[in-house]
Amino acid sequence: MSVIGLGTAAIGRPQYINIRQTANDRLNLKEFREGAWRILNQAYDLGIRYFDTAPGYGFAEALLIEWLEEKKDQEIEVATKWGYTYVANFDPQARQHEVKEHSLGKLLEQWRQSEQLFPYLTTYQIHSATFSTGVLENQAVLEQLANLKSEYNLLIGITTTGADQLAVLRKALEVIVDGIELFDVFQSTYNILDQSIAEVGEELAVRNKRLIVKEALANGRLFPNERYPHHRKLYDQLTHLARKYNVGIDAIALRFCQDNIPAYAVLSGASIDQHLTQNLKANQIQMVEEDLKSLETFSVSSDAYWAERKQLDWN
Prior knowledge:
The chain is an alpha/beta fold. It has helices at 9-12, 29-45, 60-71, 104-114, 139-152, 165-173, 198-206, 232-245, 249-260, 273-279, 289-296, 302-309; strands at residues 3-7, 50-52, 77-82, 84-86, 98-100, 121-126, 155-159, 176-177, 180-181, 185-189, 210-214, 265-268.
């Protein structure tokens, strides 16, 4: 079974692409930071040892660096990434939240902060690698990543997003620098609705690559919502299974990812104590094959999935 790790995007900045019941129009930054620290401690106390972060996640990476200095546990493993700069300045009403840049300059700039994660840093990733930025063909960037891989014994990876994430992943698998495959880790969206990367799951395992699952809850779209009447049958089945296994829908969705694809870790994006506790109930259940297969049938096309996701706001 894949382990559950903690993604820190939602604890490092007040806004995230998601469905929420209440708007956060005002922000007490001190309280927000204290809440993030509390989540990190809760995650650790509940057994989580894999943490995913990025400079683009507001203060998440800097806070994690500070938290690790206090925790001092060599069992902790950290993955971070480069390529996005957070520009909203913790303003919930900001029109722009992040800026993407896959240049060598940005890589060098953000590495200077991220290297402070050592000795817990094991994985360094391109944040949302796409064809449009040309990062997988930028020889200067690829060579610098290869240098970091060699010098610091890092796993080098990419994160993917969008309808063509499978094609991007396959392209990255072909990247070779100085006769060595550059990328070891692939952090991609996988959930009940978007199962597109399932076809490459076994190949990654055979090639000894790590797969990290993100957005396992489809940015909140797996919870019953009147905005999506076309998902009614899925909501009914998830509700049925939640009752059957005496857990929340979130635990069912996470367990589906843990069991249905050979992933190294499945990320929880929880930012609230109760949500994290409920997420980790996925570790307490064992779904029968029939139930897993029933959830497989709700897969939609990548184009449909990402078109729907683009309609979500920063909340």
